[in-house]
Hints:
This protein is an all-alpha fold. It has one domain (about 5-170). About 60% of the residues lie in helices and about 0% in strands. The protein contains nine helices and no strands. Helix 5 (about 60-75) packs antiparallel against helix 6 (about 75-90), helix 7 packs antiparallel against helix 8 (about 120-140) and helix 8 (about 120-140) packs across helix 9 (about 150-160). It is globular.
Amino acid sequence: xxxxxxxxxxxxxxxxxxxxxxxxxxxxxxxxxxxxxxxxxxxxxxxxxxxxxxxxxxxxxxxxxxxxxxxxxxxxxxxxxxxxxxxxxxxxxxxxxxxxxxxxxxxxxxxxxxxxxxxxxxxxxxxxxxxxxxxxxxxxxxxxxxxxxxxxxxxxxxxxxxxxxxxxxxxx
Length: 172
């Protein structure tokens, strides 16, 4: 049986008033120098599973917000979006690009999760949609699920849909 007091305490620790500062410190206390470094330690792991590495008190959306805040400050939004796509695909398409009983709806959900989870200006969302369309055109094999941002299909989708020379990934 779940203890309501424990759940209440967990919620308070996760969503305290200054959660960004507290969670950033918790993440850095794992021995990394940045949010990006922390994420690189766990390539492709869905955001909702990352909390276990910092005591289970950081929610998926909090990891994403911290990641995008850092990426916008460092001019690395394109790389953060690669991370987001890889982690989203590993969460929503665990069995593969075209595997499982509901792969079509799972893939549509992955697209929606990817595009809607990007923090920042509208041009980031447009670029993310271009990346998704490029990925569809690449037609990955049925069993494909990327294991890192260095996956050749991820690289190609971003090369086509969000070229490095694009203004969308740069901080103004």
